[in-house]
Design brief:
Blueprint: E1 21-27, H1 34-47, E2 52-57, H2 67-70, H3 73-76, H4 85-90, E3 101-102, E4 105-108, H5 112-116, H6 123-132, E5 137-142, H7 146-152, E6 157-162, H8 166-171, H9 173-184, E7 189-196, H10 202-209, E8 214-218, H11 222-230, H12 239-252
Parallel strand pairs: 1-5, 1-6, 2-4, 2-5, 6-7, 7-8
Antiparallel strand pairs: 3-4
Helix pairs in contact: 1-12
Length: 270
């Protein structure tokens, strides 16, 4: 497709941090908006002056869409090399730690060639991908699959994205049990109910999740989603979408200057 990409502003330098914070974002099933939330978190912390990486953890052999395509990375890197991280992992080759910087974020993503060759990472290769992230704030967009779940245990905080559609909740019951077990074992989990609308029965969703920390994310007009892809924009560059995320992140999450913990009000309302 002949989409149009304009670089709107220059990247600004990011300060190096002495400490590293790992934020996992996963879904209570697939197609719930995990990547949507994870990318917004990356830009939110970028705007806080943090050095941020976005690390996508999935199985290219079975994925149905790529963030690489959504944000037109091929056009963004038309005159520079986008390091094929998954290829490097598959070939047991070294990875460059500071490659793929765009819009102030380091991107470690699968590319179309990974899907075409149906690459699947071994446990050792998965571990290398996780270990490569050494930035001040590392966002891990983790596929809702058991093969990645062990890595969630090592996150400083886990965002679990939920689609409140009853049929989705029913089909995700087993995954809910796995994640709830992590929460009860001591993992800090924040539940993000995405695609909220007046038709959602919040009481039933609360009873299902049985969680202390719930963020209610208003549904985004699909018009904005389509516009952003056609104009090769990150969703954060869309003022309407950014406003929704800033409202929710600034209202419910207050990182201290050390970024060492969240201070969140229980059952947060939008």
């Amino acid at each position: 497709m002949e989409r149009i990409f304009f670089r709107e502003k220059q990247e600004r330098p990011q300060p190096e941090g002495a400490e590293r914070y790992r934020i996992g974002v996963t879904g209570l099933g697939r197609g719930v908006g995990t990547t949507f939330v994870a990318a917004a978190l990356a830009f939110y912390f970028r705007d806080q002056g943090r050095q941020v990486s976005f690390n996508q953890c999935l199985d290219p052999a079975s994925c149905s869409g790529l963030l690489y395509d959504q944000v037109a990375m091929d056009k963004r890197f038309a005159h520079r090399q986008f390091e094929p991280v998954y290829q490097k992992l598959a070939e047991e080759a070294p990875m460059m730690r500071r490659q793929n910087k765009e819009a102030g974020v380091l991107w470690r993503l699968p590319v179309p060639d990974d899907c075409g060759k149906k690459r699947t990472l071994t446990p050792r290769q998965q571990a290398r991908l996780m270990a490569a992230a050494g930035e001040e704030v590392c966002i891990f967009d983790m596929e809702a699959d058991y093969s990645w779940d062990d890595y969630l245990m090592d996150m400083d905080v886990i965002f679990v994205v939920v689609d409140p559609l009853p049929s989705k909740l029913i089909r995700s019951r087993e995954r809910y049990r796995v994640l709830k077990k992590m929460e009860l074992a001591g993992c800090r989990i924040i539940w993000v109910v995405n695609k909220m609308s007046p038709g959602v029965d919040k009481k039933q969703v609360k009873n299902y999740l049985k969680a202390d920390y719930i963020l209610w994310m208003e549904a985004v007009d699909t018009r904005h989603v389509y516009e952003d892809e056609y104009f090769c924009r990150f969703h954060w560059e869309n003022a309407e979408i950014q406003r929704k995320f800033i409202e929710i992140f600034t209202k419910v999450s207050r990182f201290h200057s050390s970024l060492s913990w969240f201070s969140i009000s229980k059952d947060v309302e939008m």
